[in-house]
Amino acid sequence: MFNEDTTSDIDRRRFIKSTAAIGAAGLFAGCVGTDPDETGDGGGTFRIATPDEVETFDPRMNQMVWYSTAAHYLFDSLFMLEPDGSGAVPHLADGELEEVDETTFVVDIRDDVTFHNGDQLTAEDVAYSLNWVRDPDNDSPNLSNVEFIDEAEATGEFEVTLHLDFQFALMERELSSMNAAIVPMDAAEEMGQEEFAQNPIGSGPFELANHDPSASVELTANDDYFLGEPTLGGVEYRIIPEAEVGFVELADGTIHQSSVTEALVDEAESNDNVNTYQISDFNFQGFIINCLEGPFVDTRAREAVQYLVDYDELLTGAVGDLGSRSVAHMPPGVAEAWDFPADEWREQYYPEQDHDRAVELFEEAGLGTDFEVDIVTMSGESTTGRSTVLQHEFQEVGIDASVREVSDGEWLDALDTGDYDINTYGWGGGDDPDGYYYRMFRDLANDDGGMSDDVVGHSSIGYLYEGARDRGDDELLDELERLDELVRAARETTDRDERYEYYVEAVDLLMPLHPVIGVYSAEGITGVHTDVQDYEPSPFGEQEAFNQWQEARIDD
Questions:
Q1: Which residue of 50, 196, 344, 519 lies most exposed, with the fewest beta carbons within 10 A?
Q2: What is the domain count for the chain?
């Protein structure tokens, strides 16, 4: 199903700039699964720094970006995305999807896969896993990513038939993600979701060995993995909130991989023990403005914020040179690959900083400058950095703005309940506009099952829909209804030209409403210790330390 009509040009590029001399053997290391004498603990433990604690090990309920990557070591999916992003290849699937008609596909399942508890993985497990996420009663945050599936049906012991609600251009990509992770039906049902979240059972190349909250997550090699036993004896995630501390431990070999801040790039590149890789992240980073209640209900107040800020200063305050300005709430690379009118959008929707015009708009909205702004942020250099810059801009025009730093859990609660005026926000949407427009800017009330009564909605535009409904703003509701139609239609066709037109119209509807302050798309630098062999990070890689293309080992 993945073909040139539905993949963007960006898929065919490698977004890796390496300062290390890594040859082709590093990325395409040949067959996986090594001789028993060379496996297990002899391959060492790959120790990776992460800034956040894990919220849940259940991929069906996860919302943490770093664990979405780590979960690929514990769980498998039907397909796996290639390291260069050019497409998806069968993984648990025993061959490609067979198209019966536009909304019916059959997939054979490998018969040599076992879960960590020894149970064989069958079609029933696959159907159960997909249907569980698809069931709105389970409140999975991944539901919107698999709602193209109407039902997954086990039509044989190792055969699954996918009945779709609609054609979906990104089906194989979603079936490669942890949004569609396969879990053991019997064990998951017996344990219940709460216990499964702490004691996960998957079929991946590693299994959970130990979890020390706020300290580490330790995984050990799965000797019976269907692709062969990993060379590595284990993978350990060390929870290190401060990037500087992570770099010190990287340089001395305590850990093997860590992010590198802009301030440490020169030191990392000159360190003989560290190889550095600059990787473009396909994500959106910025702020949500609360459109439901508070000072920014009026569109003119939100527009004022666009004149208040200097986008380049926000970017510098967040990540310095390790990012590029977003375009219409997409990474610039996505806009470039799709040949969107990015220059026109920049000129039309991103005004030059003008504090006088900002104050005029605040006055037109009935606010003046005598009001307070509650800016909520997670901890971290990029989030607090851009929040502090924004706070300063408000204060420059006499508006009392405070920055409230909260935990990850409190941040998620604030998004659900609307307890903020402006909130930091980040979204990993991939290299397709769908990842930003459908996932961020649809009307959540039109999803299957709608929204829970106690949840306003994660999506920033969800607050705008809710506010327009509360105020009975029929003119705005007409525009938003069209926006919702566009972002849903764009994912329900495989025709690239049609999708292009849908997104151009969606941008022109969305941007004048100003529900979001778009700041940047990150370009991360990761450092890898030279003790790690046969390994190269990728923005698309999954199970990077052990997959069909490369198999890492630790050479102490």
A1: 344
A2: 2
